[in-house]
Amino acid sequence: MRGALVIRAAIVGAGAIAAHSHVPALRAHRDRVELVAVADVDEARAKALAGGAAAYTDLGELLDAERPDLVIVCTPPYLHVDQAIAALSAGAWVWCEKPAALSLAEFDRMAAAEGAGGPYLSVVYQQRFGSGAEHLRALAGAPGRPLGRPLLALCQTTWHRGDDYYAVPYRGKWATEGGGTTVLHGVHQMDLMLSVFGDWAEIRAMAGRLDRPIETEDVSLAMVRFDNGAMGSVVTSVLSPRQESYLRFDFADATVELRHLYGYGNADWSSTSPLWSPPEDVPSTHATQLGLLLDAYERGERPPASGADARRAMEFVTGLYASAFTGRPVLRAEIAPDSPFYHRLDGGIETFFTAARS
Known about the structure:
Elements: E1 7-12, H1 16-28, E2 33-39, H2 43-50, E3 54-56, H3 59-66, E4 70-73, H4 80-89, E5 93-96, H5 104-112, E6 121-123, H6 131-140, E7 150-160, H7 174-177, H8 181-197, E8 200-208, E9 219-226, E10 231-237, E11 239-251, E12 255-260, E13 269-271, H9 286-299, H10 308-326, E14 330-331, H11 340-343
Parallel strand pairs: 1-2, 1-4, 2-3, 4-5, 5-6, 7-10
Antiparallel strand pairs: 7-11, 8-9, 8-14, 9-10, 11-12, 12-13
Pfam family, one: GFO_IDH_MocA_C3
GO molecular function: nucleotide binding
Protein name: Oxidoreductase
């Protein structure tokens, strides 16, 4: 057991997500994990986030000097692949903010840098780890299917991001974010949906740049057929003044719904099933997922939201982009290394639907 020693963690990227989500998550598990170092190109920002920990302006120097057990990657998406591989090569486990990579090809490169028994790369998909989602998966997979056969899923991420959000230089660009709101925002709810209904088989999608002054899409819509025969509808937007994250799962004998924005507790769930009664109330936070990652580290086991379990959502958004850009249905089997969308989410296709701003 590795749990006898406190796990030594480092953060690369000292921006808002690190300060507002990851540092509080580390503090919530202070008896098991310690922040020993922070790296950021802005030395003052690194020192401010580090507090009493060491501060660096270069991840390589941090890895050589500190030899952390866990590296939390909070930098812009275009930096993830090289930083994650460097940390894995140094023997550290990696917990990477989404999107973990700019493409499925990059994700597979990162996964290939894992060891046979670790270190492992895990992706921040905290929405699937609240007690409501865990309870839903338990009921959906229970013997005898107490909820009945899965039939329909609705997955909506209708958020709002203004022009000021995209004023940050790396945002809204294919080369630095990989894609738009689909892979950046909607992927959280998509990951939760896929964790309940399983792998997808076919997707038909549209995407467009309707209002924001960016290269990538600000809205996308998709219809999906799952391997189990169920169907789904997926909507993602940064154009919605009334923001909401909404998921609905219709089974043959019950409907389960979730309404929230950036995180949920049990009160945000509802169901027609008399069996709906989560045994505890665990929120869908970074701290919740970090606890499960630390459990896996202490046992020396692959953590959740890693390997094929993390790849599923990235593969789904790749299929969505492929369908949106080609204007045809896309089968999951088509998302392979010989597809241009495997290497770039826009497939290298320059045409993109754009509505004129009036």
